[in-house]
Fold this protein.
Amino acid sequence: FLFKALKIDISLIYILPKSARDAAIERLHAALREGALTPTIDSILPLASTAEAQERVMSPGRAGAVLLEIG
């Protein structure tokens, strides 16, 4: 695939000062609400399946995030 005008900004939000971190989190939430950001989820597993989740994270060919459900 060829991408034109592709811009990727990477920020380590957790190391930002609080005010900048809060603003970055709000921008992410706004992008999610507007549909501009669509995360790809490979699987959602219960917390008790942490070992399986780790195996999925480490496996080749995974398409998306592996999430743990808490609660």
Notes: The helical segments are 18-34, 50-58.
